[in-house]
Amino acid sequence: MFKNHFKIAIRVLMRQKLFTLINVIGLSIGISASIVIGLIVYHDLTFDKFHKDVDRIYRVVTNFSFDGRLSYNPGVSGALPAAVKSEVTGLEGIATTYRILLPDVFVTRGNEKPVKFKEQRGVVLADEGYFKLFEYKWLSGSAKTALHEPNQVVITSKQADIYFPGTAYADMIGKTIIYDSIKTSVSGVVENFKENSDLTFHDFISYNTHLTNAELNQDLRLNNWGGTSVKEQFFVKLSPRSRPEQIESQLNTILVRNRPEALNKERKQQFALQSFNDIHFNDRYLSIDTADRHGSKPVLYGLLSIAAFLLVLACINFINLNTAQASQRAKEIGIRKTMGSSRRQVIFQFLSETFVVTLLAVVISVGLCPFVLQLFDGLIPQGISISSLTQAPIIVFLIALTVVVSLLSGFYPALILSAYKPVAVFKDQSRSNTGKTRSGALRRVLTVSQFVIAQFFIMATILVSKQIWYATHKDLGFKKDAVVTITSPFRHRTAQQNALLAQKFRSLPQVEIVSMGHDAPSSENTSSTEATFNNGKKELKTEVSMKIGDENYINLYHIKLLAGRNLQPADTNHAVLVNQTYARMMGFQDLNGVVGQHIDNFNGDQRMKIVGVVGDFQQESMRSSLTPLVILHTTDVNWNATFHIALKPQTAGGDEWQRAFTNLEGAWKQVYPGHDFEYEFVDRSIANLYQSEQQTASLLNWATGLSVLISCLGLLGLAIFTTGQRVKEIGVRKVLGASIGQIVSLLTKELVWLVALAFVIVLPIAWYAAYQWLQNFADRTVISWWIFALSGSGMLIVAFITSGLQTVKAAMANPVKSLRSE
């Protein structure tokens, strides 16, 4: 029986090639997008799910409140781990890691000269508890002893193959690896996690190494309760009966006992537990390795919504076309029932046809996946490839998708078609009221739904693009064009080398001005401190943002000086410029009045003189509002390590900038010969602040294009069918004198009303969604009326063209051909 059903299904589909093709293409588009989105969602949702008892593992984090403004830090005080080990109950295990920033790694291979690996990421100090809390497969060495002694190191298998190619893991034990000044010997090799994980460390130096290294011991600050470093991360595993609130209470009791000022309302500090399952998705805190990407559950939900919408659109096409063809298959159904087929058998026959179409669409979609992955390359996280389709959960997803889409697309048409009664069929009553039946009304509802979804995507795409354009083209309060930044190498910079390099840069003919400092005026990296201003009547304590730059900084960026004077070389470390927002917050309407005032407790204990006031400029992305800010100059080499270079204008068709970068690189190689020359345009770095919005815009572009394409396929199919059903009516009207324009108007009138109805429905929905999305920005564009007008008219034009081609063709046909059989 099953074989017979599928054989008949294939014959029917082959007989209706055009409609089968439209259904397959529509479903393939929706399913292809769903597969790729499914891979992305599965990739992010499986991070670190494989760890034993992961629901009981937490990262200890630190929360701060500065005058009610919250700040979040994934690190802890250096003294906390030792205190927890001796004082906290209810824990089954603890682990401490301390990230070593970009060390140069030297590997000794026999008698050869050590091989250098520059500025390696993923190197940490780890204590003995790390490999007890997180289970790795050991290829050599033992978790019990590998990190027990100072100057031991455990490496992952991938890193081992890089350091010691061709060497057996067992033979690596005892090999020497030097991390800057830290000399270690290999004590173990572990296999890299095969599953997705935010634990991307690959070199684990024993934590006890600080006992033999004075510089490390100083960095760790093991007796300090005041400082909090993102490099120091602390993990705990709760006992089965422990609750997070109980552990948090014990942690904060220890903190207050050792640092009573942590309860200060103006600068409050608290420890908290962050679930390990939350780390990949919570962007309040940095990831475990701070450079790793975060996942975003709202983005994943948005992607799932897009996939669902595209699938619904494809299913709507299927339902519309199948119910529209109901009258053509009425006699087939009548004969089947007359010959003894039950309604259940008829339903199964039509579901078989749907299943064949869906299965074919899934096979095509899987074949299209490599091309779709290439198209979405910039949006897809690393680690996703076509090989991901072979994972068992993805295969189950494909099977479930095939079944669900088959039922969703085919069940209602099967119910409609199987309901025909043989007597009515043979009297031709099934054809006479085709347009007035429930299936006709359903087609209109489904068509309106298609237009609602498509227009929503169009409106969302236009609005997001408008906000990005606004953010990247608005006057930010400083010059951003033709400015590049170059940062000296982190571990090898010196003040003397930086000064020499700045001098060489200034001497280049293509360079207009050079400033030394830290970040550009607008940057994703923010630095802040607490400061106090006392005018004799009241004391103002606030957190202020900091920009580091020399006397050329505001001139290079064309930042307006509103009062006072610019910074001078003699002002280093004791004078600042403040922005207009900070001056107003201090209570000065006349900006000249703030010049000469002092702010105290700057960076804890400094007293800084205000020598000038600058105009407000955008310090971060437009998601953030303007905050109090100071600009200062410092001699600290790490705060004074970025060269800001304004290039002279380039002539039309000239190569001045090309020669400029050649000369800049030449000067760099003279001062830092062992390091790569890298630069970044400031305007590009500002555009990168809106990377998530740009990704959203790209996804919406694709979703919009696909939804419009699927909708147009459905419209084309309905237009072909409708004109085919009304071919004799068209012939009669032409014989009676109707013009082509009148006939086209008649055939498309309903379509215009459906588009208009969809526009009315989607308008408040799209406006509300746009309004809510724009609340993420402190400075945002307006929701213009033309966004909705452009979407509605654009959808109408596209729909009109799609169906109009077929209706014009029908209207121009010779009526003799359609009426000669009458």
TrEMBL record:
Principal cellular location given in the protein's record = membrane
**The entry's keywords:** Cell membrane, Membrane, Transmembrane, Transmembrane helix
Tell me where in this chain the ABC3 transporter permease C-terminal domain is found.
305-419, 705-814
Q: Note the InterPro entries from the entry.
A: ABC3_permease_C, MacB_PCD, Macrolide_Exporter_MacB
GO cellular-component terms in the record? Answer: plasma membrane
Give every MacB-like periplasmic core domain span. Answer: 20-253, 452-637
Q: Which GO terms label this protein's molecular function in UniProt?
A: transmembrane transporter activity
* Bilayer-spanning residue ranges: 21-42, 299-321, 346-373, 393-420, 441-464, 699-721, 751-771, 783-802
What membrane topology was assigned to this protein in its record?
Answer: Multi-pass membrane protein
Q: Give a single Pfam family match.
A: FtsX
The listed locations are: Cell membrane
Q: Which PANTHER family match?
A: ABC-TYPE MACROLIDE FAMILY EXPORT SYSTEM PERMEASE COMPONENT 2, MEMBRANE COMPONENT OF TRANSPORTER-RELATED
Q: What is this protein called?
A: ABC transporter permease
State the species of origin. Mucilaginibacter myungsuensis
Higher taxonomy? Bacteria, Pseudomonadati, Bacteroidota, Sphingobacteriia, Sphingobacteriales
